[in-house]
Amino acid sequence: MTPQNPVMRVCISCRKTYDRKNLLxxxxxxxxxxxxxxxxxxxxxxCKSKKCYSDSKIKKKLQKSLKTFLxxxxxEIFEKEITSYNDYPNKGI
Length: 93
Ligand SMILES: [Zn+2]
Known about the structure:
Layout: E1 8-10, E2 17-19, E3 23-29, E4 33-36, E5 41-47, H1 50-53, H2 58-66, H3 74-84
Antiparallel strand pairs: 1-2, 3-4, 3-5
The structure holds zinc ion (ZN).
Zinc ion binds next to loops.
């Protein structure tokens, strides 16, 4: 077993850098569309601070960084996902 260096990523909302494990990853999978914590394709990361995920501009920011259109119901699913997401990396939906 070799110790692994944490993978650092930037939250698209507050622009702070966090250990990847503490961020929710949203991916525009090239086949299956929007996925949380998995999928292959363009990804965005967001931290678990309420200020970030409940930001009224978060959908716009996500659309911009994923270069895709997010359906209106996305935000509901996203909030459920990020509030239930505690330290379980790679948990999918
Ligand atoms: Zn943030």
